[in-house]
Amino acid sequence: MNLKPYLLTSIVESKRQDHINVINDRKCNIDMRNLLNYLLIDKVNNSTELYEVLAHKFVSLLRANVKLLILDSIASIYRFSSKEERSPDDKPMIDVISILKRVAHEHNLAVLVINQATTALNTYSAPFLNPRSRVRPALGDLWTKCINSRILLWIDRREGWRDKSRHFQIIFGSNAPTSSPIPFIITKRGIEVRDIITMFRD
Predict the structure, then answer these.
(1) What is the C-alpha to C-alpha distance for residues 61 and 65, in angstroms, rounded to an integer?
(2) Which candidate among 20, 38, 51, 112 keeps its CA 20 to 30 Å from the CA of 14?
């Protein structure tokens, strides 16, 4: 997972400051170290290691009331594994999907999987006009049939823009309608909707 520690600590500290009055009123001993103790980061190099972490290490942690599991760059794991093992077998991916669905259902936790797309967005196109025709999950049809929601994130790098414009859009969801593109920025407070920030600054 490509997680920048300084960005994470900035976001956590900002959220702590937002609730500092409640923390002081309740006389809670909540500092940065205590908050970060609730975050576990584990790196895996192939599909076998991913399965072992989910099937054994992670399952044992569910007693701690885990509410969010993030898998970053999952496509790179299976691409690497297929090259090394020279096997087109989908069973390793199916095993991982089964674990994710089971723990999400049994423990009421959210699973966010970050997957690469196989088609690059055109620099001057509007991907939200027909996102299904331009973007395909890198893990193919098997993965597409197993997810509940697909969210598209992209950066607009068109010339003439003062900075890179990030956008968020729900492509489809089992319990949510599709959405129009939502511009956002990443600050030390986390993710903030760009139009709202601009409105308050103006």
Answers:
(1) 8
(2) 112
Instruction: Please indicate, yes or no, whether residues 57 and 10 belong to a single structural domain of this protein.
Output: no
Measure the N-to-C terminal CA separation of the chain; round to a whole number of Å. 37
> What is the span of the domain harbouring residue 193?
119-202
Tokens of 50: 């991913």
Count Cβ atoms within 10 A of the Cβ of residue 51 and give its class: 0-12 exposed, 13-18 middle, 19 or more buried: middle
**Global confidence as pTM:** 0.65
Among 65, 90, 114, give the residue marking a domain's end: 114
Residue 27 — φ and ψ, nearest 5°?
55, 45
- What Cα–Cα distance (Å) separates residue 4 from each residue in 10, 50, 157? 10, 21, 22
* Phi, psi of 45, rounded to the nearest 5 degrees: -110, -15
Neighbours of 36 (CB within 10 A): 12
Q: What is the mean pLDDT of residues 77-88?
A: 54
d(CA 126, CA 5): 33
Do 186 and 166 contact (CB within 8 A), yes or no? Answer: yes
Checking if the pLDDT of 188 tops 80, the result is: no
Single out the residue of 164, 135, 166 nearest to residue 153, CA to CA: 166
